[in-house]
Amino acid sequence: MIPHNQYRRYLRYVICAVLLVFLFRLIRQSKGTNNPVEIIQGDRDFLQSYEASDELHQYSSIYFIETSAPFKRIVTIEPRQACAIESAARANPRKKVIVLFASWNEFNDPGQVRFRDLPTLARLPNVHFRWLNLEQFAQGTPVEEVIRSDKLYQRPNGAEYLSEILRLVLLYKYGGIYLDLDVVTLKKLEFYNPNFFGAETPRLVGSSVIGLERRGYGQTFAERCLSNFKYFDNQNNVRNGSFLLTYQIVQACEKLSLEEVVNGGCGGLLEVYTESFFHPFDETNVHIMFDSERLEEAKRRISKAMVVHMLHSTSRQMRIEGKPTGYQLIAETYCPSVYEENSDNF
User: Fold this and answer.
1) For this UniProt entry, what is the primary localization, expressed as one broad class (predicted)?
2) Would the pTM count as exceeding 0.85?
3) What are the C-alpha distances in Å from 306 to residues 62, 213, 255?
4) How many Å apart are CA 271 and CA 197, to the nearest integer?
5) Contact 86, 337 (CB under 8 A)
């Protein structure tokens, strides 16, 4: 039996250890507080309307869109989504990386955006956070009535569907490269053809990585796609975006299938890259990136990739559990600041 005095001493040690752990976590969390001064000191137009950002409009930029604001009062971005932003910025230091928060109402209060990595990302010189004013953004586009429709905001997957629409409107108006918030960038995004997509499966193109030029054929292609979104209320599947893009690509290239486009090209109009470029994983095997025993297989799959689509809806609950994994490898390498801040729960 442990003497009473010794027992009390052990108990004090345990309590002190617990308090130290709690204090450590509190200090780590405090690094990610939304201090407005710290956030905006490097970006005087922080959360201002992107429609009014004339300076940024002159560039061919990389875009991310967060579409939950019309459905939630507070917008949060998870560490893995912050990783996607950091990786794009680090891999493309000469490109503007613009994170857009889509909302009908004024969205310029840092308190509306809650995620611990915001100050970290705001310090990156080529990252800009803007409000996508849906009132102005929708005007004069082929999907103006769709974006205003109550049916869209009553859908259980409304935020996802709105994202599918807005990415095409954005590229139709400004051109550039769109990335989903679960896409980790590994290499500089430079392409000989500015109009490009990536096959997600042998038969279906993905909508998580899209490049379209501001004018010329890129804008024409985007307009054709948007004209079909007016039938959104008859579509139940949020992947309507991928199905729509695939159909339009096959039609534009005068081919019978997506495989023919990938293998035979599209006469220089656009380019569709093989699955290994943007989508080395799918819903059935993305778990490989979290399996330490399959690290070499993960490395092999991403060896040719420019980006890795992490399929957040499938992998969200999967975790890095201490041992080296494929996802840990790319997080440490391509979004080191975000990973360091969140390595205990990534």
Assistant:
1) Golgi
2) yes
3) 14, 19, 26
4) 6
5) yes
Domains of the chain with CATH codes: 36-277 (3.90.550)
Amino acid at 8: R
C-alpha to C-alpha distance for 340 and 346, rounded to whole angstroms: 10
Distance from C-alpha of 191 to C-alpha of 183, rounded to nearest angstrom: 17
Q: How far apart are CA 204 and CA 259, in angstroms?
A: 9
Which residues are 179's β-sheet partners? 209
Alpha helices (H) in 76-190, listed in sequence order: 79-91, 118-122, 134-137, 144-148, 150-154, 158-174
Chain position carrying tokens 């001064």: 37
| Per-residue model confidence (pLDDT) at position 159 | 86
Name, in order, each residue with C-beta under 8 angstroms of 173's C-beta and a sequence gap of 6 or more. 137, 141
- Using 50, 70 and 90 to split pLDDT, how confident is the model at 5? low
The two three-digit tokens of residue 210, written as one number: 């899209």
Q: What is the pLDDT of residue 39?
A: 58
Tell me how far apart the alpha carbons of residues 57 and 59 are, in angstroms, rounded to a whole number.
5
Token digits for 49?
Answer: 């309307």
